[in-house]
């Protein structure tokens, strides 16, 4: 085989083969990056959110609230918000607790945590905390003159509460439809007897 024949017949085949390997390699790298991104989103709550730390902050905030005579399991009134805000230790404890919730919501917003996973795990807690501590959050925003304080948890809680209500409405409609079918089937069975 001469150099001319080799260049004309073999080299193009080798170029196509090497090009195809390159394209396949790029596709595999792209697929691996997508899988890694998905895994990181699912694994992020375990790395980004320290459950033990969150539990400590919750206990500390609730302890300080009880010290002031505020029930942490009930809606914080405007008067309760003033009590907490005026006591430096209680204010720091409750703000640290709320900042922890804010971190969860920020992680959801920036996409470092899978929203469906975070919703399944944290939605009831986040919605309830925002509902219960709303007057205190408003007090802190007003005191600092910054309506953006704790804004992520307010936005995420509103979105998740809407999602929960929509899901509940769909499930209620499905249940009603199933009950109608069941009653219809029972009616047919009664007529057959």
Overall morphology: flat
Class of secondary structure makeup: mainly alpha
Tell me the major beta sheet. Answer: none
The tally of strands reads 0
- Strand coverage percent: under 5%
Give the count of helical stretches: 6
Mean pLDDT: 88
Radius of gyration: 29 Å
What is the count of distinct domains? 2
The ordered string of helix (H) and strand (E) elements is HHHHHH
The end-to-end span amounts to: 92 Å
Proportion in helices: over 70%
Unreliable segments (pLDDT under 50, ≥5 consecutive)? none
What are the salient characteristics of this protein?
193 residues; mainly alpha; 6 helices
Describe this structure as you would to a colleague.
With 193 residues, the protein is mainly alpha-helical. The chain has two domains: 1-48; 50-192. The chain has helices at residues 3-48, 51-67, 78-86, 88-110, 115-144, 151-192. Helix 4 packs across helix 5 (115-144), helix 4 packs across helix 6 (151-192) and helix 5 crosses helix 6 (151-192). The radius of gyration is 29 Å and the shape is flat. The protein starts with a helix and ends with a helix.
